[in-house]
Amino acid sequence: MKVGYARIDGDERSLDEQEMLLRKAGCERLFSDDDTDARPANLGLLECLSTLKAGDLLVTPRLDRPAHSLPNLVELLDDLARRGIGFRSLQEGIDTTSADGALVSHVIGALAEFQRSLISEKTRAGMAAAQAQGRHLGRPRSLDDEQIAAARIAIEQNGRSAAEVAASFGIHPRTLQRLLREQAGVPRAAPLAAARPLVREATSSGALPFRRSGEKR
């Protein structure tokens, strides 16, 4: 069975022309989406895809109707092929049930993979350039370098606990310990003792002398 799918966006006003083309192509059922109305996006396409079964042929006026991007189109074609469903785009003259159409489908897949590779390469190049300029990647740090240095002084020289200092900055103690390790150049996976911060230890007399973590009492 031939099943047609049409879609209009903000640049179009009516489905009439697309639906006429689909009927002329022999479609027995039609589904559509209007991106300008209040219905959930692509609800018509989802209904169409759930209706299709092995041996059916999905017909669309042009390639950009059922797909918003090249990777999206490849994903759709792969899904249809796995389910034994053909695909035909009228404007481009692509029909995956023919030898030529199957070849075009493979070419589209190769182009999508090439596009993904370009994006990945540009992303890596951008990250490398940012690191070379000393820019921090990922989520913004909770504290800047001056605040981390001040926290280190408060702990190591002024005798405040990591919990107290972390609370004064409004962050979790583990976050503070991680920032201190990073600034000191200690690997993230290294135990806290590697940074050897000063910690408090209560004695029987009630005094709170300081020792470095890892040192014997």
Beta-strand share of residues: 5-15%
Level-2 CATH architecture of the largest domain: 3-Layer(aba) Sandwich
**Tertiary shape:** elongated
Q: Work out the helix count.
A: 7
Poorly predicted regions are: 190-214
Number of strands: 7
The third-level CATH topology of the largest domain is: Rossmann fold
Number of spatially distinct domains: 2
Sheet with most strands: strand arrangement? 2-1-3-4-5
How large is the radius of gyration? 31 Å
The major β-sheet equals:
5 strands, mixed
Mean pLDDT, all residues: 77
- Span from first to last CA? 83 Å
What's the CATH H-level superfamily name of the largest domain?
A: Resolvase, N-terminal catalytic domain
What is the level 1 CATH name of the largest domain? Alpha Beta
Return the string of H and E elements: EHEHEHEEHHHHEE
Tell me the helix content: 40-55%
Features:
217 residues, five-stranded mixed β-sheet, 7 helices, 7 strands
Overview of the molecule:
This protein is of the alpha/beta class. It folds into 2 domains: 2-115, Resolvase, N-terminal catalytic domain (Rossmann fold); 145-212, no CATH class. Helix content is 45%, strand content 13%. It is built from 7 helices and 7 strands. The chain has helices at 16-24, 43-51, 70-82, 99-132, 145-156, 162-169, 173-184; strands spanning 2-8, 29-34, 57-60, 86-89, 94-95, 198-200, 210-212. A 5-stranded mixed β-sheet has the order 2-1-3-4-5, with helices on both faces. Strands 6-7 form a two-stranded antiparallel ribbon. β1, α1 and β2 form a beta-alpha-beta unit. α3 (70-82) packs across α4, α5 packs across α7 and α6 (162-169) packs across α7. The radius of gyration is 31 Å and the shape is elongated. Mean pLDDT is 77; it is low at 190-214.
